[in-house]
Amino acid sequence: MSEPRILVTNDDGIESPGFRALYDALDEVGDPIAVAPYSNQSAVGRARSFEATVHEYELGYTVEGTPVDCVIAGIEALCPDVDIVVAGCNKGANLGAYVMGRSGTVSAAVEAAFFDVPAMAVSQYVPTADDEDFENIAPPKEAYADAADAAAYLVEESLDSGVFEQVDYLNVNAPAPDDAPERPPMVVTDPSPLYAMTADFDGDTIRLEDRVWQRMQNGDIPDENGTDRRAVVDGQISVSPLTAPHTVERHDRLDDVAATYR
């Protein structure tokens, strides 16, 4: 393939340093065009709008809408000749089976898959201390280097390799950045089944908390080798090959239940 045309989007907003890190890395291996949200759209999942205002931007376009809006707008109208969609780099990892429908970054890749366009979601793990508020952490562009480099490598190597004949999209997560001179190794993984959401009610307010992140920071996770979370905790770049829609297994017992409905 000649230089690939790459639709670049995210859910943190087009001005985020992770987006710029990804765009610049992809510019080394292809022809990127931005179609990204005007503002932060984290954790909106596959929400979409019925219409959205589009603005020209120095790198392409910005859309007053969700990551899914951006993918639909890009593939259908703004840059219909793209070869691949890459979403990221997200501030924070997107690990585990339960995030697939929640993450705006992953949802952008899922939406592209329904258009039969290869796609990739790219995230950077950002650990926090107990006294830190994740929303107030602002890693610089350089902190996303491992995630952005992995994305550029995968774009360069995967499109002609047959990878996307077997899978619809890749979920890529880089470990916490450190001062090691070598780039982290890359491993193929499955999404972790670990789920640790809790809810506490004090009579007026319900507080929802995802305790997976605290367990990650403490190293207290049961994830086995081969899972995405274990790879990231162990300092590896995780690449999970995924399909959209999710695989459905039909079985005789459900057929029997349906057949007896009156």
UniProtKB/TrEMBL annotation:
One cellular-component annotation, GO: cytoplasm
Species classification: Archaea, Methanobacteriati, Methanobacteriota, Stenosarchaea group, Halobacteria
Binding site for a divalent metal cation: 11-12, 42, 90
Enzyme class: hydrolase
Top-level lineage group: Archaea
Function: Nucleotidase that shows phosphatase activity on nucleoside 5'-monophosphates.
Entry keyword Cell membrane: no
E.C. number: 3.1.3.5
Gene this chain is encoded by: surE
Catalytic function, reaction form: a ribonucleoside 5'-phosphate + H2O = a ribonucleoside + phosphate
Keywords: Cytoplasm, Hydrolase, Metal-binding, Nucleotide-binding
UniProt subcellular location: Cytoplasm
Molecular-function GO term, any one: metal ion binding
Cited Pfam families: SurE
UniProt protein name: 5'-nucleotidase SurE
Bilayer-crossing regions: none
Organism from which the protein derives: Halolamina pelagica
Record's cofactor remark: Binds 1 divalent metal cation per subunit.
